[in-house]
Design a protein that fits this description.
Length: about 250
């Protein structure tokens, strides 16, 4: 591999949940200033949400698609091999360009592919500077679109990836404060059951494809057990008595 200039930079840019208007000004500036913008794609080759968002601000010729096994959760070796190959490709880009951006949906520090890439680049290109630009998360967008209040006063906020299992979600729902569930689409039936068992379904709301043509935002009470898109988000607001400032 060619030597990488010590001044090379890799910057992870959060591009939000799908609505191109929710990319921050700082994020847009970072994307436009980069020599190339890397977007993660599945090995199926289909256009991802990050790429579709970036295309609103950066011409296609400056976008580089890099395959990540984003849809691989059972074959650990295959997933690791894909991450290694992606890291090698980005390292090559850093050898050729002083400023490489990586676009990731949501925020680069919240359940993001960028985390794994940054670790790999830290090993392959230790002299490269690695930075992030925060992005708006799906839970923020869903809260805004549905009117759900995420936190009040002293309420805690718990974020659970349902890929960890519905039991983890149920434990969170039995606790205080608002619970947000990510990636629950394939376990929608178990999520609905957990909400009902804990008495949290009445005020809960879920959404998918936020900011895009296929957007769906519905009360959780309408969950019928049918699978939903993988990147579905759920908000189960804290139990509140309706008193203004009651949790202060």
């Amino acid at each position: 591999m060619p030597d990488v200039m010590s001044s090379s930079r890799l910057i992870g840019v959060g591009v939000g949940p799908g609505d191109p208007e929710l990319v921050t000004v700082k994020g847009v500036n970072a994307l436009r200033a980069a020599d190339v913008v890397v977007v993660p794609v599945m090995d199926t080759g289909e256009k991802g949400r990050a790429e579709a968002t970036v295309l609103h601000y950066v011409p296609q010729e400056r976008i580089v698609r890099v395959v990540f096994a984003l849809n691989e959760r059972s074959d650990h070796a295959r997933r690791e091999a894909a991450w290694d190959a992606a890291g090698e490709r980005v390292a090559e880009l850093l050898a050729a360009h002083s400023y490489v951006a990586f676009a990731t949906i949501g925020d680069p520090n919240v359940y993001s592919t960028f985390t794994y890439l940054a670790q790999t680049i830290g090993e392959l290109v230790p002299d490269a500077a690695v930075e992030t630009v925060p992005g708006i998360t799906a839970m923020q967008d869903l809260a805004a679109r549905s009117g759900a209040v995420l936190t009040e006063g002293t309420e805690p906020l718990t974020l659970v990836p349902v890929t960890a299992g519905s039991a983890v979600l149920k434990d969170a729902l039995n606790g205080p404060g608002t619970v947000v569930a990510y990636k629950f689409g394939r376990l929608a039936g178990e999520v609905a059951e957990a909400l009902r068992e804990t008495g949290r379904i009445e005020d809960a709301v879920w959404g998918s494809a936020l900011g895009m043509e296929a957007e769906s935002i519905r009360p959780a009470g309408e969950l019928d057990g049918a699978p939903l898109p993988y990147l579905s988000t759920l908000i189960a607001p804290a139990r509140r008595d309706g008193t203004r400032g009651g949790k202060l």
